[in-house]
Inverse folding.
């Protein structure tokens, strides 16, 4: 029993490590000539053949009813695609550790969305968690237009990811095959980015080999390995324990930003991180919390 739990902790922690490392890899790819739009496009495009091969080997049918396919495309583009683009864009303005921590406000937004649109009660404990998390973001506010732009992009990415999570839950997509949903979402986001590129021209198609290789690592690390490790971890752990362990993601992101990118992590940001993670942890351990619902969706569908 102890060995099983140890395996679950190891797998879940490794998943959080991969999710936490990829923001720093994204920032490194920018130094090689990539852009947020390019990374969002290629992250989804490059994983398509891998998913197709997996589906073929497992004999998973590609056919999906049109109504469900439309929902997958809508949730994928508006939730997953826009989330990824805004989060990756925030890295160009603020540190990856700061951006990842602010993005982790999404459980707070899930609670608020479920309260506003589905009349789910928040309760005193959840309200305290919301106050903690919202108080934490104050410590990330800095002067200067660029910092504020990055701040709002990172927070907005948490909001759109919350809509993605709620959409997965309320639209019943979490009951579908993981690979099928991932395949069509990745295809939809890649197609949407091509349309977005027509008026903007921000996608760099001729990436240097090193940048393209790094992008492929990001795609596989997030959309395949990190998700698979999380699923393996959930075989041995309950959702609450896995949810709390997933909070290692912004901590790993901050550490990679400091070690690889030379980012400064001020005392104010440390206090803000503690408050945000305390609020999210409180949401995670509450019975029937939004974070638990998110974890059920996340174990089936890759995040941003």
């Amino acid at each position: 029993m102890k060995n099983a739990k140890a395996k679950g902790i190891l797998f879940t922690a490794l998943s959080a490590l991969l999710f936490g490392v990829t923001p720093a890899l994204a920032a490194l790819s920018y130094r090689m000539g990539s852009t947020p739009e390019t990374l969002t496009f290629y992250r989804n495009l490059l994983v398509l053949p891998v998913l197709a091969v997996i589906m073929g080997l497992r004999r998973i049918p590609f056919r999906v009813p049109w109504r469900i396919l439309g929902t997958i495309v809508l949730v994928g583009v508006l939730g997953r695609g826009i989330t990824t683009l805004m989060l990756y864009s925030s890295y160009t303005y603020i540190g990856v550790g700061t951006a990842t921590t602010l993005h982790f406000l999404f459980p707070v937004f899930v609670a608020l969305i479920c309260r506003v649109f589905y009349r789910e009660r928040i309760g005193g404990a959840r309200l305290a968690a919301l106050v903690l998390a919202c108080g934490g973001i104050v410590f990330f506010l800095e002067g200067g237009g660029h910092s504020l732009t990055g701040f709002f992009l990172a927070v907005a990415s948490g909001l759109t990811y919350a809509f993605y999570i709620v959409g997965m839950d309320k639209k019943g997509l979490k009951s579908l095959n993981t690979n099928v949903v991932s395949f069509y979402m990745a295809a939809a986001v890649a197609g949407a980015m091509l349309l977005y590129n027509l008026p903007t021209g921000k996608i760099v198609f001729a990436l240097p080999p090193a940048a393209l290789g790094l992008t492929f690592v990001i795609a596989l690390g997030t959309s395949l390995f990190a998700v698979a490790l999380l699923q393996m971890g959930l075989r041995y752990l309950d959702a609450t324990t896995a949810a709390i362990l997933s909070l290692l993601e912004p901590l790993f992101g901050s550490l990679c930003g400091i070690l690889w990118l030379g980012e400064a992590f001020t005392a104010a940001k440390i206090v803000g991180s503690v408050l945000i993670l305390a609020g999210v942890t409180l949401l995670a351990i509450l019975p029937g919390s939004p974070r638990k619902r998110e974890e059920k969706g996340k174990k089936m569908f890759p995040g941003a």
Summary: The radius of gyration is 18 Å. The longest helix spans residues 2-31. DSSP finds 14 helices and no strands in the chain.
